[in-house]
Amino acid sequence: MIIKKISFLEAGSPGLHIFSKFPLPRLGAVLLSTMVRDRGYKTRVFVEDVAEPDWSFIESSDLVGISTITSTAVRAYAIADRIRALGIPVVMGGPHVTFLAEEALDHADFVIRGEGENSLLELLEHLEKGKPALAAIRGLSYRGKDGENYHNPQGELIQDLDSLPEPDLSLVHRWKPSNIYPISTSRGCPYGCRFCSVIQMFGRKYRFKSIEATLRELKRAALVSRATKFIVDDNFAADPGRTKEILRGILAEKIKMCWSTQVRVDVAKDTELVRLLADSGCHTLYIGFESINPATLQAYNKKQGLEDIIACIRTLKNYGIHIHGMFVLGADTDNLDTIRKTTEFARKHGIDTVQFLILTPLPGTPLFYDLMENQRLLHRDWSKYDAHHVVHKPALLTPLTLQVETFKAMARFYSWKYILRHLATLHFHYAAIGLFAKTTIRKFMESYAAELQALQSQLT
User: Fold this and answer.
1) For 72-103, how does the pLDDT look when each residue is reduced to its tens digit (9 = 90+)?
2) For residue 169, which of 34, 366, 360, 351 has the smallest C-alpha distance?
């Protein structure tokens, strides 16, 4: 088989969400595209949430790779069916198909489970030269000539992240450097929250790019784009000593940039680290507070308490760092009072922006298998597994109540008072976010009216 042209595609989100205004390409497809480009292939990345794909390019490709999370799986499968109907082989990857490879093989020729860098390069070599044998490619699932599905043993996780090239975002179709600029410096997480699939995808052990490689990438990104840089690591401060060295490097090399990242609550216990974050240009920290209900925090296996959350907010505000708080509603320990008190808590403590997400059992997580075993999943319409729809039966709330009250919580937080307060203090960025959120919530309620009725009918 001759392969000269390869397309990579991220299927679009099934509906609006609060941060639809700031779509980001997931870096996996961009990294793979960079790697095959460096080996002489013609390639592009198409992200439906960013821009309408160039279907003429895709449908004239020799191979198409499609990346999907659970909420985009329905769309991804439809695209895969369309491409395969043209006789073009399709490779699928991403969290959803990693855990449901059998399902994905009804739509794809090959599925790469977990980290895909080595597996994809070996697959390309097989398709072009016949070697290595398919059975020797770790992490690969495929349908044999006998009609049976085969799932090869999982491959080893990449330990030397410096061996990978920097993802070239210029390969993304119609990507603008003025957009939020994503950067990845680590993989893995040891904490094991029951609703999170990071461990199943990337392992329990943190793996880091070197400080030198990280600083080179940050410096290049600062030169390429003045947009806010977003370090997409699940916990950028996982190794505080490493993080401090990076921040000192940003200051020493005078890398001027506004940036944000994700951290855990315990970041605020190290005031030296917080000061360096502020001094180096960190604008906002995205923090998974998850809940203000101590029983829920324990159920989520968060290893943090309410007092830790409050202390974190206070410390970060003292250093002028903004906070985006993420809360997950609908645990078996949550009731109506929990939801309403969460909104009051976020407003009282001055959290700048929030996401109130509905607990969603994603395939591959302990939560998913627990609810499936106990027959508490409402359905498997993957397009609704987006943290904005109720897809399971909560213990202390009806699904309908959880759905409606989560919308109301968002509406109470992003109120006209929120918008006017930020306008009065000349914080136009947050006023704009509040206005966009309010508009989006209204559209949610309008578009979900029929779905809420269907949910009520289903439960009845």
Assistant:
1) 999 999 999 999 999 999 999 999 999 999 99
2) 34
